[in-house]
Amino acid sequence: MTRRALILIIAVVAILLLAVGFPTFVRLATDWYWFQAVGFETVFLKTISTKVVLGFGVGLFAFAFLYVNLRFAQRGLVPKPVMVSLNPKAPTVDVTQLFRHLAWPVSLFLGFLVGASTSNWWLGVLSYLHRTPFGVSDPVFQRDIGYYFFTLPMLRVVLGLVFGLAILALFLVLPLYLLRGDILVRRRVTVEPSAQKHLSVLIAILFLTTAATLYLVRIPCLPFLRVSVVIAVLGAGAVIWGARQRRRVRNLAIVLVAYFGVSAVLGSLFPAAIHRLSVLPNELAKETPQLEHHIAATRQAWDLDRVEVRDLTGEAELTLGDIQANDGTIKNVRLWDRDPLLQTFGQLQEIRTYYDFISVDDDRYWIDGEYRQVLLSPRELNTASLPTRNFINERLTFTHGMGLTLSPVNQITVEGLPVLFVKDLPPSSTVSLEVTRPAIYYGELSSDYVFVNTGQEEFDYPSGEANTFTVYEGTGGVSVRSFMRRLLLTTRFGSLKILLSDDITSESRVLFHRNIRERASKAMPFLRWDNDPYIVIREDGRLQWILDAYTSSSRYPYAQPLSDGTNYLRNSVKVVIDAYDGTIEAYVTEADDPVIQTYAKAFTGIFKPLSDMADDLRAHIRYPEDLFQAQTALYTTYHMNEPQIFFHREDQWQIPALPSRGNVRDPFLRHMVMRLPGEESEEFIVMTPFTPRQKDNLAAWMVARNDGEHYGELVVYRFPRQSLVFGPTQIVNRINQNTEISRQISLWDQRGSEVIRGNLLVIPIEESLIFVQALYLRAEGGRIPELKRVIVAYRNQVAMEETLEGSLGRLFGGALAAEPRDLPLQLPVGAAATAGAGAAPAANLVDLVRQAAEHYDRAIAAQRVGDWGRYGEEIERVGELLRRLRELQ
Question: What integer is the mean pLDDT of 773-783?
Answer without folding.
Answer: 83
